[in-house]
UniProtKB/TrEMBL annotation:
<keyword id="KW-0732">Signal</keyword>
<dbReference type="InterPro" id="IPR023346">
    <property type="entry name" value="Lysozyme-like_dom_sf"/>
</dbReference>
<comment type="similarity">
    <text>Belongs to the virb1 family.</text>
</comment>
<feature type="domain" description="Transglycosylase SLT">
    <location>
        <begin position="63"/>
        <end position="158"/>
    </location>
</feature>
<dbReference type="InterPro" id="IPR008258">
    <property type="entry name" value="Transglycosylase_SLT_dom_1"/>
</dbReference>
<feature type="signal peptide">
    <location>
        <begin position="1"/>
        <end position="30"/>
    </location>
</feature>
<dbReference type="Pfam" id="PF01464">
    <property type="entry name" value="SLT"/>
</dbReference>
<comment type="similarity">
    <text>Belongs to the transglycosylase Slt family.</text>
</comment>
<protein>
    <submittedName>
        <fullName>Soluble lytic murein transglycosylase-like protein</fullName>
    </submittedName>
</protein>
Amino acid sequence: MGYGRNVPRPAAPRALGVLLGLAAVAGAGAAAAEGTTGPSATATAPGNAKARGRTAYGELLMREATARGVPPALAEAVAFVESGYDAGAVGTVGELGLMQVRPATAAMLGHRGPAAELLDPATNIRFGVAYLARAWSLAGGDVCRALAKYRAGHGEERMTPHSVDYCRRAHDRLAAMGSPLAAVAATAGPGIPRTSASKTRAAPTAVMFLANRFWAAHVARVRAVEIRTARIMEGG
């Protein structure tokens, strides 16, 4: 979330249980176009995985959202849009799990464990909903504005084409769930200026440059951890 949501990204692979495997994703880069009609991170499970995911994680999402004052349906819609209920989804700029939480964001919210713990559904939902709750509060309960802030960072005050599409996908999910929030998510939230097409076309080059630099630094950190771990295992 945050920085990662400003960057278009390609379909992401599932995690294989070891976070160090993230280094293998680096070659995919972060340069594919966003704005498809499916979840932000591609789920690789069979066609009925979404129904199973909602059943498996719905209670966790409801409990955490209720505790933090967020409409449970909104938290569920975010999990659907972000990962298609894929607890093992990994984004190309480090987003992890059901709600595509970045390790840096989780750390900001108080997470002190290893990044791999964010692949645990309960942990991921806890920090993802915490971030969403702040977005919801800052947006004053405006659904699309809250979604834009979750997608692009709490400081986001624009309704970019990517955020409009994100809100549309969340609206579709809310409608499918029969949530009354679908009615208020039908259009982009008031009070957020829309960016023109010409402005949004100028941004990707600089954004992708920063994204690639971030990912290169991330891979270097992962490699350093691997080296230190190997030395420890060798007794050195």
